[in-house]
Amino acid sequence: MSSLPGPESPSERYRASAERAAEAKTYLGGFIRSLAFELDDFQRAACLSLQSGRGVLVAAPTGAGKTIVGEFAIYLALQRGLKAFYTTPIKALSNQKYAELADKYGADQVGLLTGDTNINGDAPVVVMTTEVLRNMLYADSSTLGDLGYVVMDEVHYLADRFRGAVWEEVIIHLPSEVQLASLSATVSNAEEFGAWLDTVRGQTDVIVSEHRPVPLWQHVMVGRKIVDLFAGDTSFDEIAPAGEAAVSAVPARLKAAGSGAVSTERPGLDVNPELLSMARAESQMNFRGRFGHGGRNVRRQSSRRDEAPQGDPRSPVRKASRPQVIASLDRQDLLPAITFIFSRAGCDAAVAQCVAAGLWLTTEQEQLIIARRVDEAAQDIPPDDLDVLGFWSWRDGLLRGLAAHHAGMLPTFKEVVEKLFVDGLVKAVFATETLALGVNMPARSVVLEKLDKFNGEAHVNITAGEYTQLTGRAGRRGIDVEGHAVVLWQPGTDPAAVAGLASRRTYPLNSSFRPTYNMSINLLAQFGRPRAREILESSFAQFQADRSVVGLAKQVRGREESLAGFSKSMSCHLGDFTDYSRIRRALSDAEKNASKTSSRARKSVTEDSLSRLLPGDVVDVPTGRAPGLAVVLSSDHHSREPRPAVMTLDNQLRRIGTQDVEGPLAPITRVRIPKSFNAKVPKSRRDLASSVRNALRENRPPAPPSRNDDFGRAAAQPDQEKRIAELRRELRAHPCHGCSEREDHARWSERYWKLRQETDGLVRQIQGRTNTIAKTFDRVCGVLSGYGYLETSEDGVLTIGADGQRLRRIYGEKDLLISQSLRLGAFNDLDAAEVAALASVLVYQAKREERGLRPKLPSVSLESAVDIVVREWSALEDVEEANKLPLTGEPELGLAWPMFKWAKGRHLQEVLSGTDLAAGDFVRWVKQVIDLLDQLAKIPTLDPRVSRLCAEAIKLIKRGVVAYSSVA
Q: What's the pTM value of the predicted model, to 2 decimals?
């Protein structure tokens, strides 16, 4: 493994000079002459590896210049008359890289392939998303001919739990003669990843650089004042060697010291005492506020506190507003800046707040340039759509040098923001974390509003790796002398915790690889089952599992020695204490099982009561997110854990489950829900709430008989009680029961059995990690055989059936469900618009809070098609659960109506009306639907009518803002 060298001696400098003279005659020399700057040492080392015919893994901080290595791979391909593919994890980055390479080498030399875009795909240099290359490999595409180099940008994305497996598939399946240049953020196990690459791809050099070409300084903004995080002059590179030890020690030392700077392992890494004093003052203020004694001043403060939300920590510092933060950065010449806000609405609100505050960051000349470029970008967008896209407020913000950047924006708008920011015309961008995934938008400063985010289920702290990825955008190479990372002081901020995040800039790269249905059937088709298992066992996931087994085996050996000592200590002179201990444990387990049986019975009764609730039932929900009276809007009879939809009397829509009730839930009254009721219309909700109140006042009885009232009566089964009594008699009759040292022996026995269980667990882990990927593959094959996709010949060889050949061409998280939907005729009786709507059901993934009642669909034929899909999904989920496989996601209907309207030619405003979809989200989902329809249309064995309808549906929905893009 190579790393950045230290200072060079005169002889080393002479040798380097001689090497560079020789280098000038090579491909690398020609490449260097085409650059306007000198290569860094790590860049030169990586390029030399490629030139020598070896693969390379480059791990370096964001902004260090890793992509130069990828560009050299492209240069080598062109010089040698070969092809080069440049893969990225996201379309935005593909579009950006395509524009850069087309500008450098000419549009005729560069192509772009993403799910919905195909430009010059046969060019010698093609930029693409990683999924496109995976699909090419499985289809044995002719485009792979003469492929010499593949650049995998942001290769650390293989840790992504949803899409990461694609990177491993590509690495494993690429022809052996193709050289691979893998570009990664700094990861702590680069050697391990490099060793795996060496195993599957041949000789691979690992080049690691911790050096940032532009020093990064860490700050905290307290009020409107920017304070250094560390006491000394400490930049990113100086933090690097401190590593994990410094981080883990920081919080403990803060508590222990109580005052003064928090010291880490190295001088100069002390947390700024000013920040520690601020944290102590805030802590004392909150302590006094909670436990302080009388006095007029305290009482006055407490009366004011009563008006604030309870439990919120207070701070002696008044937090700066967003306009004030930007103004402070502007005064200190720290713009352009990216402010990361983990909320789309927050990003849009930040721009609106800065505009309302009268903030202008641009000159008149810059405003003219911005206006011209914005109007040029918008000239192809239908005028009717500009208002719904928020064009005018977006334009106003840009003229002032302000913009948001998030996935809910129209891709065209995001591209304009990116270009204006890179050109220095936009000075402040408020972005979600998706901007940090590789889009090239370096800034002078990066601001983090908070150090926690909502991950879809709960608010969690950001990790050190995420902190590094976000702050890595600060410092523009060749423009800025230094970059700045600024964390905003919030009530409760712990300076030591912030220092810990800043000190840990590496994170492990862990595989998320697992065999999918499509992957498995393609492997079987190309290689047969024995070879397919071998290929899967060569994955990085299995490589990591095998390495971990060595450490686990060592732990098992150590624990077995301890168990021998424990066994000796619990021996009894009256009899076999191991046997006595076994009876005690059996008795304890039997009593626990009896208790669990009773709990399960109570839960079953509760679930039964929820499944019996009917629309119109009024219930009193005791706990959960929506306690109080509510009316049932829809039943949930068929789910394993019923969650009927309800509306509370304050008009909130919720689902209730067993966690919201303490026992069976019986209706207390009942109302009639009108057929015209629409839960999305506020007036409908108000009218229904009024009907509920009237029913309660009139004490109307519930129409159905009262529900099951057995709660609390469920008890242990008779055979369980009998078993418990037998074990108690057996325990009393054992010789060791009368031992005077019985409890002392029992303590050693408890230790023995606890350690025995832990050791057995480690042994099971070892067994589970051995061939774990291949075992999953076997279970997937079992499911595919059960559905008839695989057939077994007379000699026991698995072959691919006709339906299996179709599945080979379907890529996506619901691949088998899509194939089954085709097989069962879900698409057969639909027109083109309905086909687009049904495809959205198989692609769309609603946010958790957006899931609600099943909408009435546009047509009877579409209702029937969706019923087929939902029934098949339910059956598939049962099969997957039985085979211990990850469950296929539930079909989502939230995009069906908007997609249908769009396919029918409605205006964007009408399409989005009544939905929570942002315009950018809608465009993104439509493009994914186009991708799926394109896959289906190209399946050779598909019914020609369905294939024609898929192609027709693409034409219907690829229009307006969906069709328009600055790239394609």
A: 0.70
